[in-house]
Specification:
The chain is of the alpha/beta class. It is built from ten helices and eight strands. Helix 2 (41-57) packs antiparallel against helix 3 and helix 3 crosses helix 4 (89-99).
Length: 234
């Protein structure tokens, strides 16, 4: 029986506004390339997978500047190759430089509060497990997430990042729940879904933009409105 629901944070509960795809379209247009936003969903997701795997090996923020730049360069190389643009070093450096000057904010997806309200009414414990390297309380207060989150574990506190089992186990210990009693929702297959599964949690992959249609071995939803069905059928 499910007694708690734990969430990933970035691209699960909160996202960029404007979206990263929108901002990338804008940057490429400034550099003379015309790309549709929809064509960036899969490339950005693939680049994200690379970034999170790298971050799991060693947090990017703790690396030397040259190594950080190498990771970001490869990140944009993946995106450019996937959309058929030659990943010239000059173009990649231009994208990285221009990205730093863009303005955006992190906002909740529209389905988040209705979902959390429903979980609260069902008396389910609500938790969060995030690869974050700073105190998130300001963001939680700004978005209203602080009203719902009972168990919060971030990588800064435990010293490891997802998919390391220790961060999931820390959340279970903090909540007092067992792995089988928890449903875990995240947007990355390797980091979130497999990370949670390897600890014995009940994972659900949140695939808002249908980037994982080829996966047949996982439970996948496209929005948090579908979560109630997962709870009732676990």
């Amino acid at each position: 029986m499910i007694k708690g629901v734990f969430f990933d944070l970035y691209n699960t509960l909160i996202g960029y506004q404007p979206s990263r795809e929108e901002m990338t379209v804008k940057l490429l247009a400034e550099l003379g390339y015309t790309i549709n936003e929809d064509d960036l969903y899969l490339p950005v997701n693939k680049a994200d997978e690379y970034f999170y795997q790298q971050n799991a090996q060693k947090p990017i923020s703790l690396r030397e500047r040259a190594e950080q730049m190498a990771v970001w360069s490869h990140y944009y190389r993946i995106i450019l190759e996937e959309i058929g643009i030659e990943p010239k070093p000059e173009l990649i450096n231009n994208l990285i430089s221009r990205w730093k000057n863009l303005k955006w904010e992190m906002t909740l997806y529209q389905d988040v509060i209705p979902c959390l309200e429903n979980l609260k009414k069902r008396n389910l414990k609500i938790g969060l497990i995030s690869n974050a390297e700073k105190d998130m309380s300001e963001l939680f207060n700004k978005t209203g997430l602080n009203k719902y989150l009972e168990t919060v574990v971030i990588s800064q506190e435990v010293g490891v990042t997802k998919p390391n089992p220790l961060i999931f186990q820390a959340a279970l210990k903090k909540s007092g729940l067992t792995a089988k009693e928890v449903l875990y929702i995240g947007d990355q297959y390797q980091v979130d879904y497999m990370g949670a599964m390897n600890v014995g949690l009940n994972p659900v992959l949140l695939d808002r933009r249908n980037c994982y249609l080829d996966l047949k071995d996982c439970r996948r939803i496209t929005g948090l409105a579908e979560l109630e069905y997962c709870i009732d059928h676990t």
